[in-house]
Amino acid sequence: METPRSLSPPPRPLAPTVPRGVVSGDRATDQVLASLAFGEAPRVGIIGDTGTGKTEAARRLVLAYLARVPGTALVIDDKELRPRFDGQCYRDVAEMNVRRPAAEPRVIVFRGDVRAGVQVNAESVAQLAWSMQALNRPTLTVYDEIARAAKKGEWRKGVEKIPAAFGQGRAVGIASMWGTQSPQDAPREAFEQSSYLLVFRVDGMGLNLLRHRRYAADERLREVIPSLPGDELPPKDRGYFVLLRRGRPWDGFVYRYAV
Fold first, then answer.
1. Which CATH class is domain 24-256?
2. Which end of the chain is less packed: N or C, by CB atoms within 10 Å?
3. What angle is formed at CA 236 by the lines to CA 186 and CA 139, rounded to 5 degrees?
4. CA 190, CA 107: separation in Å to the nearest integer?
5. pTM surpassing 0.85?
6. What is the DSSP letter of 175?
């Protein structure tokens, strides 16, 4: 059996039900993006409590996607005063169309107006992805918080291009990455069309929903997922997650990207 490349041990013991230890998040990346080798766009969800390391995982996946595909990442990043993703920043799609540079950047970050509390219209970013697809330009759209477009498991009124990307994007080069602190807000399409979920620490209703949606049927995950380290640690020490596939057995690993 292959011996996993372990990272430094976590500051507190993992649940004893983790049978195979902690391995590099790069191994998770290879699995999540494997469909690119077949010309198929991935769909992936990132779930967990605030401060557990979801954004760092999203950044790593964006970079890995761009290293594999001559495409563009469209990132909604309107939570904090400073951008968390490196790229060309715009308030919204309308501003990008006015100030579009001669050479298209690989990462386009939509910021809204964080100080004024103005959030990005996620549907407009999905529409941009579809317009780029019409020009045969592959994209990865990052919906940092799926609750921008959904509530209590239903898409908000007027949201059409986002669910279309989940249902049809695989074959036409529209990749989607979504994140949430509250899995119950994510619509069924996001769950059922996502090939993988990166699950950081979560408990209660969120954990129950993962079981209901057939991602966390393994009884050991009831203990493992809530025990993953999170915001009680310094940011550099966070980032532990499990990689789950709908209806598939858990692989027994906890993953973490090396800092």
1. alpha beta
2. N
3. 45
4. 23
5. yes
6. E
